[in-house]
Amino acid sequence: MSEDNIDKKKGFWGTTLTRLKSVLAKTKEQVQDPEELAQGAETAAAGAESQTAAASQPEPVKAAAATSVATAHKPVDEEYIEALEERLIKADLGLPTVEPLVEALRQEARGKNWTGKDVDDFLKKRFHDLLGKTANALSFKEGQVNIYMVVGVNGVGKTTSIGKLAARLKSQGKRVLLAAGDTFRAAAESQLEIWSERAGVDIVRLPDGSDPGAVVFQAVKKARDEKYDVLLIDTAGRLHNKVNLMDELKKIRGVIEKHAGDLPMESLLVLDASTGQNGLQQAKVFQEATGLTGVILTKLDGTAKGGVVFAISRELNIPVKLMGIGEKLDDLRDFDPNLFVEALF
Ligand SMILES: Nc1nc2c(ncn2[C@@H]2O[C@H](COP(=O)(O)OP(=O)(O)OP(=O)(O)O)[C@@H](O)[C@H]2O)c(=O)[nH]1
Ligand SMILES: [Mg+2]
Predict the structure, then answer these.
(1) Can you point out the beta strands (E) in 235-335?
(2) pLDDT digits (tens, 9 = 90+) for 197-223
(3) Neighbours of 146 (CB within 10 A)
């Protein structure tokens, strides 16, 4: 790797970490100030460009660092542990994750004169154990059509993540095909088409309201015949009701099994980082309908930290594979447990 590349790489991770850290600082302030929290929700709704701008302001990072320096050498007492517990719950880690963790901390710290720094080290190790126990890399087999089916409730970022992933795979020299499996809304299809143009990849789509199974069937055939490396399947996030949606996803899954059962396949759940503990419920429902091999955690550039992934990892053993940190084509990163845990502090 040339020096230039190394520098670029450093800058790349540095920027990601700074952005994630500033997200943490922002969240902390908003948790303390309900009015600001409400404003934060409006900002989130107003779009990611403003979020990104807010997230890249350096001030919150400094504020967060000052707090941790001030508390790093204080002895760890019950008050400290309770404040920490509250912080972890507010980061959406969920009680079933937080309680045993805090209990283990009490045991471990007992009679040892621990400071905040020791607690941070302890937590980082535990968090890493929780998130890093399953493979975090997206699987890919050379010389075959790799199918990635992307599912999730509406608005979480499925189509956007597919666009970003398509661009990334293409830049690695792979031949990428998209399947417009969300035929429920015409708008959804044209959105995927826009992403296919942006990423410079091909797309299979049928007229609005077509059977998504038919789209997937055609896409699988084309991908095989024309030797694509990757087939990315977009799906609907909302139908008339939840049962319909799950039935449709099961059907798509059935088509893949029947016509592409021999091909490597991942079923990826897209989760909005701000979903909170409800994300675990979503994961369970989609797990049952389509089987899941990984999670794409989006909108980490917003106000949330995505602590729900600990619950998903612990209860369902599904790893987070990718994270979305903005709306743009290159705002997708491999999930790095270390980086994610760093950003929690
Ligand atoms: N800030 C931010 N916004 C994102 C991210 N990923 C997606 N979005 C935005 O979230 C909104 C919804 O994204 P879509 O990709 O349309 O979501 P979807 O899951 O396909 O939605 P449906 O097709 O309605 O089910 C869009 O405004 C995206 O720009 C992200 O990582 N960060
Ligand atoms: Mg969509």
Answers:
(1) 265-272, 294-298, 320-324, 332-334
(2) 999 999 999 987 889 999 999 999 999
(3) 23
Cβ atoms of 254 and 171 closer than 8 Å: no
Distance in angstroms between the alpha carbons of the first and the last residue of the chain: 31
Ligand 1 pocket member 40 (CB < 6 A): no
pTM assigned to the model: 0.79
Residue whose CA is at the smallest distance from ligand 1 atom 29: 327
Q: Pick the more confident residue, 79 or 135.
A: 79
pLDDT band at 289 (very low <50, low <70, confident <90, very high): very high
How far is the C-alpha of 225 from the C-alpha of 231, rounded, in Å? 12
Spatial CB neighbours of 121, under 8 Å, sequence gap ≥ 6 = none
Task: Return d(Cα 179, Cα 186) in angstroms, integer.
Answer: 14
> Do residues 25 and 61 lie in contact, with contact meaning Cβ atoms separated by under 8 Å?
yes
Inter-residue contact 230 to 169 (CB < 8 Å): yes
- In the chain, which ranges are E strands? 146-151, 176-180, 202-204, 230-234, 265-272, 294-298, 320-324, 332-334
Q: What's the CA gap between 264 and 266, in Å, rounded?
A: 7
DSSP 139: P
- Best probe residue, ligand 1, of 154, 327, 332, 335 (max atoms within 8 Å of C-beta): 327
Tell me how far apart the alpha carbons of residues 100 and 2 are, in angstroms, rounded to a whole number: 46
Determine the pLDDT at residue 130: 85
